Amino acid sequence: MAKSATKSGTTSGTTKVRPLGENVLVRRIEAEEKTKGGILLPDAAKEKPKEGIVVAVGDGKLLDDGKRATIAVAAGNRVIFSSYAGNEVKVDGQEYLLIAESDILAIVE
Q: For residue 97, is it within any domain?
């Protein structure tokens, strides 16, 4: 059974997002505003972070025998993913990444 994200705060009610198959919904962790030396960075100079928090996961990849593979990440995990992974989606004004589990490189513990 897939775990879904619930995002409320809209006048129309609650929107649920449930990734399909081996997809994972991730909320990107915000980029640093300052360098280690204390220099403020403009938005154009910030690199998009490659870390995020898993919000929801799909059921897993469908295998040849008809069973589903177990997904290695769970909602709430902090993960590192590939630079150009996934598709950016916006749900109720919040930006997320919808990425394949194979684009997740590590879980940060």
A: yes
CB 15 within 8 A of CB 72: no
**Whole-prediction pTM:** 0.73
Domain hosting 92: range is 18-30+40-108
Number of domains into which the chain is organized: 1
- The answer to whether 30 and 49 have CB atoms below 8 angstroms apart is yes
Nearest to 77 by CA among 94, 101, 52: 52
Burial of 60 (0-12, 13-18, 19+ CB in 10 A): middle
Least Cα distance to 19 among 56, 52, 53 occurs for 56
Convert the pLDDT of each residue in 54-80 to its tens digit: 999 999 999 999 999 999 999 999 999
- 59 lies in a domain? yes
List the structure tokens of 73: 């990440």
- Per residue in 12-50, pLDDT (tens digit) is 446 788 999 999 999 998 766 666 676 766 666 556 678
